[in-house]
Amino acid sequence: MRAALWLLALFGVAVAVALFAGNNQAVVTIFWPPHRVDISFNLMVLLLAGLFFVLYLALRALSAVFSLPAEARRWRAQQKERAMYGALMDSLAHLLAGRYIRSTKSAQNALAQEKSLALLADQSGHVTGHSASRGGQLRALAHLLVAEAAQSLQNKGLRDQHLHQALQSSAPRHAQEVREGVQFRAARWALDDRDAGAALDWLAQLPQGASRRTLALRMKLRASRHARQTSQALETARLLAKHRAFSQAAAQSIIRGLALELLNDAHDPSQLQQAWFSLDEGERAMPELVVHAASRLMALHGEPELARAWLLQVWDSMMQPRSDIGDNLRIKLISVLETGLDSLDAAWLARIEAAQLSRPRDANLQYLAGMACLNRQLWGKARQLLSQAAPALQDVTLHRNAWRALALLAEQREDEAAAAQAYKRAAQI
Question: What does each C-alpha distance from 29 to 22, 33, 49, 50, 388 come to in angstroms?
């Protein structure tokens, strides 16, 4: 359609010119004493147009001749720029392929080309498409590639040298992005060298916005765990879970593991209580953490009443008809309660008895009730419950303790044969 319109316009112009020039009888007279020249108006128009065209071509030719030195400089600059970017791409390709020495040479070649290009631009008074800001960005990336290759070759001196040069080479326009990228790589290299302190120092130098990115939080979590800074690692894991950097199951597993480590780092009851109350409400509701905290408190000779207060929510959850608490956690809960049987109050005794009566086939509850009766010197009931529970217990420790308790009961009633048989069964486990 566009071509047809142009064709119609061309025909229109041709018709207009024909109508104007075909019947034009005008004459132009030029007086040049003592001469007189008469020419038609149409010829005069053609001569003027030809003269204008010749002058235009002459001016363009003169401009092209005088611009030859600048064009030559521009051509050389373009060749250097292409060689520079080509060397940078070669360096990156060699680095990805594991050819670290070749990558270093290509990056150094790119730096040499960039320096030559900048010198050429200063001499000519102008720059090409490779601006000064892009030059600073390219220098920083080239130094970073050399440092990356040096890190892979374990040449820490060369790595640190080019690392500092990369931090100093970033142009103002791209300074923040390049600097953050270099700091991220430096933190990663420190983690690879198992220098958690240096990694945390590099991450601390990041701006506030960059320090809350998922990449920074992942490295901070890893560095904090290596540095045994459990509290900081736990806080970082919470932020990662909030940002959904992990799946829900993975986030809970990581947070649970760090919380357990935080509880294990406590060396007295006060430290343990401080660590426990530093956890979030959702974390303090995890059955694994509750049971482990109570176990640690009993092991550190803390208050048994406080441990049982923590365990109450897990006990109630365990007694639900469709409880999701596993057998291992149930056994650990019973072991913790067994540790504090000496100070067990009437309320807990009633809970244990009610639980055993509601589930008469649960060997673990029978064992706990039997040990509670044994502690209260209810010999007959303790013997009855432990005799029923001992053959069905699956946990090795509880099984052995049940037979030992039966042996003590047999010795108490002076039944040496039954005591020997019980001790034999305990020793065989």
Answer: 20, 12, 18, 19, 140
Q: Which residue from 159, 145, 152 is spatially nearest to 114, judged by alpha carbons?
A: 145
Q: Give the Cα separation of 104 and 115 in Å (integer).
A: 17
The CA–CA distances, whole Å, from 359 to 35, 356, 366 equal 138, 5, 9
Phi-psi bin for 106: left (phi > 0), alpha (psi -120 to 50), beta?
A: alpha
* Residue in 391, 418, 422 with CA at minimum distance from that of residue 405: 422
Q: Is the peptide bond before 34 cis (omega within 30 degrees of 0)?
A: yes
Sort strands 35-40 and 27-32 into parallel, antiparallel or unpaired: antiparallel
What does the pLDDT look like over 96-117, one tens digit per residue? 999 999 999 999 999 888 888 8
Please report, for residues 203, 212, 215, 236, 266, the alpha-carbon distance to residue 209 in angstroms, rounded to integers and kept in the order given. 12, 6, 12, 15, 33
Average pLDDT, the chain: 86
Residue 165's DSSP bridge partners are: none
Q: Are 335 and 397 in contact (CB under 8 A)?
A: yes
So what's the pLDDT on residue 92?
A: 92
